[in-house]
Amino acid sequence: MLDITNLHASVEGTEILHGVDLTIKPGEVHAIMGPNGSGKSTLAQVIAGHPSYEVTAGSIVFEGSDVLELAAEARAQAGLFMAFQYPVEIRGITNAYFLRAAVNSVRKAQGLEELDTIDFLDVLEKKLAAIGWEDSFLNRPVNEGFSGGEKKRNEILQMAVLEPKLAVLDETDSGLDIDAVKAVAEAVTKLRSPERSILIVTHYQRILNYLTPDHVHVLADGKIVRSGGKELALKLEELGYDWLRDEAVAIS
Amino acid sequence: MSGQPVARYQAQFEQFATNGASADPAWLRDLRHTAIARFGAVGFPTTREERWRFTNVDAITKAEFAPSVRVAVDAGATAALAFGDPTSRLVAVFVNGRFQPAAASLAGLPSGVTVGSLTDAFTTHGDLIRERLGKHADLEASPFTALNAAFIHDGAFVHVPRDVELAAPLQLVFLAKADRAVVSHPRTLVIAERGARMSIVETYAGPDGVAYWTNAVTEVVVGENAAVDAYRVQREGDGAYHTATSQSYQGRNSVYASNAFAFGSALSRHDIGAVLDGEGAEATLNGLSVLDGRQHVDHHTTIDHAKPHCNSWELFNGIYDDRSRGVFTGRIIVRPGAQKTDSKQTNNNLLLTEHARADSQPQLEIYADDVRCTHGATLGPIDPKAMFYLRSRGLDPDRARALLTYGFGAEILNAVAIDDLRDQLDGLIHGNLESRG
User: Residue B274: inside a domain, yes or no?
Assistant: First the structure.
């Protein structure tokens, strides 16, 4: 599904990622954990194709194709999705309108017929039912005046509707209370499938209580310093990131 | 101050006062004389004056506008400007400021409601008109208001009696018929008596490619407990000059909403004033400008909180392409004793090119201490964060840009309560945005 090899990336001339390697197979859920400033969000942004980040070395291969030369919209059309840490407010455009524009952009790129308003509402209602949510914010402008929890839920709704092959969740749990983390994680769990992979980028272990990862990686100073199963997340929760840093110092 | 340009209109006034208007009531003749004297004393504004700093009206001052004339049209002339079912809609048509009974569609008016020519209504509503006409749109506020008052003739009169509700929106269509530089001075007086409810839509339109001038004044009186939802669609021709004042005056517990859409004309200046003169009154002033080429629009708004416990909301958005320019002034006055005033003002300007320009100036004058007044303005190109957000959802850059641009208009459009009007405006916005590729 996704093969990242020796990825180096910079922003404004400062290198943030110093050689990341990561392989995700179809249906797997991976978690990338790490302290603030470790490069977690940079990795998510680089996968999504944010134009402010420059990849100076390495490759990202998604479904067998190198995506580094693709613009963000082409990656989305190919089935990549990133749930934003800070979802953007779009004035005047309702959520329903925005979702339909997104779905139709992807469908058009895939050579499928675009959905009209009525067909799309059908799809939307089914998706909402599948993740167990109400449609209360569909007619509000995108993210405008939304609470932190509503914004994150809205990202997951977009994921449900766009049906990506790979979803990167960039700190989807940050700023949420425990009930909201649980609601979001449970919805994402319902979206798991053998064909869909998920990469969760997070500082804290708690979201992983509700969304069990197959693999956990620790990113520190722009490199993956340790990989393991879900028990690694629990160990980090108990000992903190200093434990790894101390160990790294001890080894070197 | 005066000199040649002013003398032209003084001469037109003498002609008008002795011929067309000499038979009108003495109070109206007095009002006109006071008005032309005021215009003569101050002349056309210049950018040296604070209120006109950002809007240069030299093109109007220097052009030689002749008085417009009465032109007869039938209902077909305005069919494309009105909305709704042609068999049931309420439409009054004014050509060059003069009522056209033959083009009107007013059969569905409830009994007791009056819509028609202002001067015709002197016989039926003389005292009421005398009490209100020219009492709200201050002659001293703008030389153009004074010039309009000097030439009051015919015009529009709307009266909705106590507790009467107009079910369908009332459409006033002001059409300029001009093939050369002429000026018309449309004048409108709307009175919603205590407990009355209505929606009213003023549309101003005219031919492209002609440098005509429309100088309009509308006064709206919203009685105690009355509710008026007002819309104004300025879609004048591309060579037109449009100067206007819309002044509302509200009583206790009344609700007034003004939605000003500016799409047309080369140069337009619209002064919008709201006086909240009764406790519990609420006013909403919304506006949207969508401009391109070298168009210039200036919205100069004043909300006067004269009494306590009143709310006002103000939201003006502008979309400026090419070398167009938008000006917004949001003056909010909270009079001494107007405690518990709650006022919010927002002005958002989207600049689609580096040559487009917008100026925004809030002016808060607060003379009471227990009030809440907030204001905010944004100005700039499309937000790159929003662009990336949309692109990351699969939208190509053109589609993303179009959606974000449209959103500036949709934010104002979403507040339009009349479905047919919203569809019409949506078409105008989409048309304007698409024509510029």
Answer: yes
